[in-house]
Amino acid sequence: MNWTYFEILRIPELIEKIGKIGTSKFPFENDKRYVFVECGSSYNTQNGM
């Protein structure tokens, strides 16, 4: 599976995890959510993936 596609599929899980951490550590606006997904090719190359 393409790593970028895998990360896109994890978005709901990641948003839930951030919500459990609490907004005191991350001063987000409650009505907006931002998700940044990148290919990670440099990370994957460095880690032998």
Describe this protein with a few key phrases.
mainly alpha, about 50 residues
Overview in brief:
The protein contains 3 helices and no strands.
What would you say this structure looks like, in words?
This protein has 49 residues and is an all-alpha fold. The protein has one domain. The longest helix has 11 residues, at 11-21. The chain starts with a helix and ends with a helix. The protein has helices at 3-9, 11-21, 41-46.
Cα-based radius of gyration, to the nearest Å: 13 Å
- Count of alpha and pi helical runs: 3
| First and last CA, distance | 12 Å
Secondary-structure element pattern, one letter each: HHH
Largest β-sheet summary = none
| Structural class determined from secondary elements | mainly alpha
Strand content: under 5%
Query: Number of folding domains?
Result: 1
Low-confidence parts: none
The oligomeric status of these chains comes to: single chain
Shape: elongated
What's the average pLDDT?
Answer: 69
The helix fraction, in percent, is 40-55%
Q: How many β-strands, per DSSP?
A: 0
